[in-house]
Specification:
α1 crosses α5. Helix content is 23%, strand content 34%. The radius of gyration is 18 Å and the shape is globular. By secondary structure, the chain is of the alpha+beta class. It starts with 5 loop residues before the first helix and ends with a strand. The chain folds into two domains: 210 residues, Bira Bifunctional Protein, Domain 2 (BirA Bifunctional Protein, domain 2), CATH 3.30.930; 53 residues, SH3 type barrels (Roll). The chain contains six helices and 15 strands. The strands form three sheets. Strands 1-2-5-9-8-7-6 form a seven-stranded mixed sheet. Strands 13-12-11-10-14-15 form a six-stranded antiparallel sheet, with no helix packed on it.
Amino acid sequence: MTSIDAAAIREALNPATVSRMARLDVFPEIDSTNAWLMAQPAPDTRMHRVAIAGHQTAGRGRGDKRWLSAPGSSLCLSIAYTFQENPGNLPALTLAVGVAAVHALRDTGAGDVKLKWPNDIVAGNGKLGGMLAESHHRSESGATVVVGIGINLRLPPDILASVDSGWAQSPADLASIPGSSVSPEALSAAMIDHIVDSLLTFEGQGFRAFAETWRRYDWLHGRSVTVRQRDGAVRGTASGIDSDGALLVKGAATTTRVISGSIEVPGIGGVHL
């Protein structure tokens, strides 16, 4: 199993990022970087702690879906960050982190990468990665959130159909994107720099600082969708997001705000959200 070099990651980080880093832990293999950080002491206010692994044996996506990977085929990275106050809207925070992740990927050579509401990174029509934000700890001195991200680096053929058992689209990997040859260390450093910066910005300005950029990366926009919810189905055209990050679906007579559901895109497949 290829190991990830913690020293190389630290050397590549922006000094401002390093100054706010409480700890960086790198594992060849772990059950889940998010779960591991959730079990650790929370960092001090406006500080962050990072866990990285080359392989997860029990990675999780949104809605407790499993994120499956072969050793060395993906980058699994989680950041625990303590806000001075409760950030409140975790779904909107996830969208903000998505913008940061796309910037990191583009900075390291992955050009046409987009975001699929609410928490997926898409290359072409395939899922390149996903994100998960979880509340860790709240106290009078702050609120800690753990943000996890998984990126497919180079997927072996035998797991292409099982990377995420709840994802009906084909998966994608960085190895298939022209110009995106980058080391796990360089990608890790770019992700940490951009995500930590996004957390600081979100703390000061909220989602409004990210909304317009997210809309530029919106993979669903203009596509016909069917959203299946417990009380029925909503059909229409995905029309972006509103100010708090809810998906907007434009129907014949009205536009519906979608917080959660199962989205189906004709010709692509269904995605449980």
